[in-house]
Amino acid sequence: MGRTLPAVTQVFLQEQESFSRFRRALRRSDQQALDELFANAHRHLAAAAYAAHALPFEVFLLAMLLEEHKEVRRLRSLLEQLNLPPHA
Amino acid sequence: MPEYTGWLLDLYDDLEEGLVCWLISEAGERLRLRQDFPVTFYASGSVERLRALWRYLRPQPVHLRREERSELFCRQPITTLAVQVPSPQAQARLFAQVSAAFPELTFYDVDLPSALRHAAAFGSFPLCRCRLEVDAQNRVQAFQVLDSPWELDPALPPLRILSLEPDCDPAHAQPTHLRIRCGKAEYNLRLAAARPLLINLGAILQRHDPDILLTTWGDTWLLPRLLELAEAHGLPLPLNRDAERLPASRPELTYFSYGQVIYRGAQVHLFGRWHIDAHNAMLYHDYGMEGILEMCRVTAQPAQAAARLSPGSGISAMQMITALRQGVLVPWQKQQAEQPKTALELFHADQGGLVYQPITGLHSHVAEIDFISMYPSVMVHFNISPETVGVGATLAEPYETVPELDLQVDYSRKGLVPQTLAPLLEKRIALKARLAEMPAWDARRSAYKARASAHKWLLVTCFGYLGYKNARFGRIEAHEAVTAYGREALLRAKETAEELGFEVLHMYVDGLWVRRSGATQPADFQPLLEEIAARTGLPIALEGVYRWVAFLPSRRDPRLPVANRYFGAFQDGSLKLRGIEARRRDTPLFVAQAQQEIISILAQAPRSGALGEYLPLVFQSLRRRLVALRRGRVPLEHLLVKHKLSRELENYRCPSAGARAAMQLQAAGKTMRPGQNVRFLYMRGRPGVHAWDLPHPPEPRGIDLARYTTLLVRAAACVLQPFGLDEGQVRERLLVGGCTLSLPFAAQVIDITNNHKLENNCAC
Hints:
The complex is a heterodimer.
Chain A: H1 8-17, H2 20-25, H3 28-42, H4 45-51, H5 56-81
Helix pairs in contact in A: 3-5
Chain B: E1 3-13, E2 19-25, E3 30-35, E4 39-44, H1 47-57, E5 63-69, E6 78-85, H2 88-101, E7 106-108, H3 114-122, E8 129-134, E9 140-145, E10 161-166, E11 177-182, E12 185-190, H4 194-208, E13 212-215, H5 218-233, E14 248-250, E15 253-257, E16 260-264, E17 267-269, E18 274-277, H6 284-299, H7 303-308, H8 311-325, H9 343-349, E19 361-371, H10 374-381, E20 389-390, E21 399-401, E22 408-410, H11 416-437, H12 445-466, H13 476-499, E23 503-508, E24 511-515, H14 522-536, E25 540-553, E26 561-570, E27 575-578, H15 589-602, H16 615-630, E28 641-644, H17 657-667, E29 677-682, E30 689-691, H18 705-720, H19 727-735, H20 746-753
Parallel strand pairs in B: 10-13, 13-18
Antiparallel strand pairs in B: 1-2, 1-8, 2-3, 4-6, 4-7, 5-6, 8-9, 10-11, 11-12, 14-17, 15-16, 19-24, 19-25, 20-22, 21-22, 23-24, 25-26, 26-27, 28-29, 29-30
């Protein structure tokens, strides 16, 4: 592990690195949002390693989506607590 | 025929034939006995070549037999030519000829140390209790071992220990005196006067006749120097108890292991007496003499070897003894290669343990539960051994499939590795159970802890050896099976915890951090432990319940959690720190102690909610330390930074602070090798460091106080960050009201507010 195949953290960093040109061309505020997306995916590295998926970036994308969805749920429940309808 | 009962002190090959055994008799005599010890090695191959070997060996003084023996990886016994040679010495000589003349044959049991063969044949180990029958020529005729390595409280002989210690670190300055202690006697000999030194030391050795020479820097400096002096002056120096032998020297070595460059100093081994150098013994700092004794008890390696070798060679020794006892051939060279896999199989198999990212921040009433020696337990429980793991079709029924992997484990026979580990695991668990029952004041606690620590190192390395390509009983598939079972167990534990309503804050290979509202006492977590043990089949225990624990994010990016950076206080008041400055060995003591104190102050808080009340105390303590630093009241030793050299000095393109310090030493005529540690102080100006082992002392006024202040602030901020304080805020709070600019070196105090950078003062 880590010799024959790179460890999941290395794979993650390589994937992130491969978007450095994309990131550079973004506005500063967008760069921060992109960094947050990657930080979100980073939280699920153990699960990504366990998945042993042939295309790890798909797993990282799903992990980003997962955190985004958690955020949506959190905001939705906040709205509910405030007694506001979600589509108001 | 005379009979002796006592303890086996030392065992080694005689200069001529057979073995020398040193016995400490019950009457307190130290007896040098000899034992004939014929050994057997085996050859296998084509019938013609074996017959040729037979003809080749017939004129020699050996016994030849055709034998069916078990080979670990063959289901059926194989035909071998067994060659019995009268002594280990004769075997080594003969085998050198045979292996050159018959390179196409496969050889077994050829390079086993005599101590291991003896252990396999008689059950012996260093300091075992034994009864010997001896003939008129002091030859052992019967050797009976009376105790076992697995005894929890073995009866040990009263060992005579003589300690030899130069009055300072020879790497730091030239020692002038040699301090000698043996029981109540103490001596102080001047090193400069060689003749009186040698004569007196010789007389002291004769008078006390120690069993163990316990030295500091004895391997790397003291004994080689004493031996040189003795030779130059033509005086005898009875370091050995065995008068027929000279001490054996082994050269220094730098090697690469587990991503680290490791330096091992030269060694001096004695005969009939043990030489143990506290500075050159592996893990001596961790488990001391008790640990070394335990290491040689369970591995049966000679004590001087066990003290200096890695635990990995201890595990190999144990496996070889198991093989010898069961009549399984020990191959000379390993022959198993990895089996082919598809890429997808490799993705699944080539993984380690599961390492999660914790939920960062401060948490209350968290239980840490750990599988006990997870990987060794997996090997024993699931019968994982190089010869039991394979693809189903090649195995006999019954077998089980490894989770996630297309591998099966043979359950029809007990594997060699599980057989070797089972008694060690049992002993460790029994020791831990005893420790848990012992009151804190019990004098035996430290010895028990040292022994448990020796077991831990052996058990930790046995897993690595399973995957090590050069280990004789290693096989990568077995290694992969262990981690696969480990991942499965951790995930089952997570599922169990969640089903029982716990929140899982963190998981790390073999441990989980869980909490549930209302669960605050150890008993509240007991049902969870039992359920996990039932579902995984592996032993699991509660490490403790934290009053509070803080998981820290990455230093680079506060949004990223990291797996192994946390600190917390258990309910019993004990602390656990991981990955922070206080645990790092390159941290100066001044900084480590400050950080430790902050955590100790915080540990007084009964729960996380009350922690804020303790912050003023924390800042008080930090200010006190800062003032001590400014006033020059911190001993220079506490400011020492220790770096390990990772390469030869000329290969540093951009020398780090440690490399610059090593260069100073080299300029002063000392040689520095990769893997060696260099200690230094941060100084103002260029080159920014002062190597501690330079002949001239550092100028205290030149100490880079700003840099040490930054290190202190950084370490404080690291543990205060869960309270919402970052480095800038800690610095600000520390300097307001705490320090006045009238102190000495005031100019530097201003410097630290300007966000002093810690990057190396790189010359390029």
